[in-house]
Amino acid sequence: MTVAQHRIPVPMALAEDAVAPAVTADWIGRFFMLGRVAEGWSRSRPDSQLVIVLSVPVRDFAAVLVGCGWMSATPAPTLAPVREVLAGLARGTPVRVVSQTKVFTEPFGGIDARGLAQLGSKWQVDKLRAVVPLASIDVPRRQPIPEPGVISRLAGLDRDWAARICSPPQDLALVGTLTRLREDLAGQLGRGGGSEPIGNILLPAGPRVVTWSTRVYATAQLDEELPPAGVRAVVLDGAPATRFLSAIEAPVVVSIIDRSIADESVAEFVMNYRNTRGEPVSLARDLKWTPPQGVEALAFEVP
Amino acid sequence: MTKLVATAARYTRSASLMRNGAELDIVADPVGSQFDAAARRLILMARDDSSSLWEDVVAPTKALRWRLLTQPQPTEFGASVQEASTEVAARARDLRAAVSAEAQCLLDELAAAAEAVAASDSVVSGVLLEMIREATVEGAVVIAASGSAAAGLERWVSPQGFRVRTVSGLLREQLFVEFGYAVGPPRFFPSSLVTAPMTETLNFVFPAWYADRKLPRSPLAAWAEGGIRIRGTEFLIGDTSEPQAASAEEGVDEEALLPQAAWIPPDASPREPGPDEVTARCVYLSGGYRMWLDDDGERIRAVDPSQPGGGRVVNIGIDEVRPGVYLLLRDGPTERRALYEVALQLLGPQREPVEDSQARWKGALKDRLERLGRTAVLRQLAEAGVLTLDRVPAWTEPLLARPQSNQDFERLLRWLGVPIHPTYELATALRSQRIKASNKIGDQLEAVLASTDMSRLERDGHLRLELDVDGFRGVIATRVIDTSPYPETILRHEARVLQPDRSSKWRE
């Protein structure tokens, strides 16, 4: 699946929640597309880091929109057939399972004489759509499977939906003020009348979630803990998060600078980083992406 | 307006101001112009004289000039121009006896011009009033350059129904208005007023004698794709046939005329700090304070009054401490000392092993620094693979838990010959308790600030906050008035301690 084949035309729309009215604007689709092109770029240039700095009139929604675009371009996980996975598992291994209606976590209790899998209750193996072993689970949890919405269908994510829900790509991290990011994550992204919860596209990690995709960090947390090696894209939402730019090793870093509150020092910091470490990249020429009106964008590659 | 609609409006307004530009309404003001000319000559004369003789008259002169530009309301609505005018005239007369005949002549002119600007209402006020009256009460907002300027302008136009806000007030209240009238030249406002506007149109109203008419721009504009550049269209109002703006050959640029201090470069660069010393810059703060700000690699707490409650406390880097930023500082011992104490308490039974272990590696480092000298230590650490060499002297500081980088810490311990385990884990435990303590204070400050009137903070420049946490009762939120560009070497324990200093009175 390449970006070109699944180019999603603007305009897209946003709503604050499932019942709020939708707002259609050019910047919504552009930020989404930026996430998609960045994902494609990073796979074609695995040995360097791409840094994109966006200066926006106000920070709201920009980080999650870029994140949604990124996630929409990630390849589906390749999972072995359920029977094969279960056959290779030791009893007691924690697993995440997708059935026809639910996604849940349980320790695997083996397969009994009648061929039923012990996963909390007994399951016919051919009723299970996907299984992956996990490192650990605290308590078994379950939740209904989210349905692929308009954006997931448009991006072709629905084709491997069970595998995606069972073993989502865990390669994106958002860093910023938690309360604000959570508000943004509660929004709905849509197009042509339909809409889909942003949370279903990004599957944010959290203490009680059954399956998750996107790590969400409070800026101050980075003092103690940086995103792990498997994270391929980090969105730094705001000037304080952007200060960690040089510490982030992910192949793609997108920094969102809110012009209404950032002072000049963060811009100087970014320019200094680019001048000492980076090689300029043209978004228009190299990534074929142009910023929406009211947005300044700057990209560079760190070898 | 919902958050999303407001967000969309910000993009539209930003794009529209980029398309249409802002309007500069430049008002002929012969009376103000005379004072400005005298002020410029005064600055030149003071600059050529290295004695501090002139400071008493220079500071109120700059303040008066700034107030004329930002608070043009008729005299009956505010005394700030009068107050500065009286001070200028009085200090000029005091100084008369001590200076040459030529300087006496200038001081007389200055005193007369200062009194003249206070004696009649500013012509700018009439122009501004006419403009806002053309708009509707609901459709217009008067934008003030500072909290104190807002207070004066408000007394004047709010009885007529018009609103006055600072730029941060507009953001805080999410006040979307059609027409914005900024009182003062563009450079007196944060760049966000034009680069991330809350209004559909924007006018700057100021007297013609103010020479610098450039619009602030986004610092990324020059390098970014889609760079935000706002065009300004000038309209001259009144009789501008006489030359109004001071020309460049008069030799004083606008920077030197702002109320901030004129910093005198030290004779030599600061000496290398000794074991108990650091290099720091002097920061003048609102409310009559100053402090020494050192770069110990840690961020400092600040308030962003433009934010709604719940998001006002921010941690900023030392290089972000600039005029206009509001710092949160403990009254009494510094925050880092208090945090260190709290972190030790939180460690419980681990406290003693942590203290011993920290003393051991820090002692070993200090010992090497003393024995081998800083240069040799840095060279050897570089060979050992330590990257953050500029931080090495700070690592001896007892209040600093450990180097930020895991790798550097391990390499340092190996080089010192100190057992990596459990030294590493104990230092990390201290750091983690410190972060916990710091977050708790941050939450408390956030809660107190959420119910604090931010326009009061902006008007007065400083505010005392009472917290309900052990060791953290009094915290002062105070605006940075000025920071020295010249670092100096000071004793470590003097860093970041609030000290009273009255010399900043006329700089606010």
If you had to describe this structure to a student in words, what would you say it looks like?
The complex is a heterodimer of chains A (303) and B (508). Chain A has 303 residues and is α+β, with helices and mostly antiparallel strands. Chain A has ten helices and 17 strands. Chain B is α/β, with parallel strands linked by helices and 508 residues long. Chain B has two domains: 3-211 and 227-257, no CATH class; 264-508, no CATH class. Chain B has 16 helices and 15 strands. In chain B, the strands form two sheets. In chain B, strands 7, 8, 9, 10, 11, 12, 13, 14 and 15 form a nine-stranded antiparallel β-sheet that branches. A six-stranded parallel β-sheet of chain B has the order 3-2-4-5-1-6. In chain B, helix 7 (147-157) links the parallel strand 2 (140-144) and strand 3. In chain B, helix 2 (30-48) runs antiparallel to helix 5 and helix 3 packs antiparallel against helix 4 (80-96). The relative contact order of chain B is 0.13. Chains A and B meet through strand 3, helix 6, helix 9 and strand 17 of A and helix 1, strand 10 and helix 15 of B.
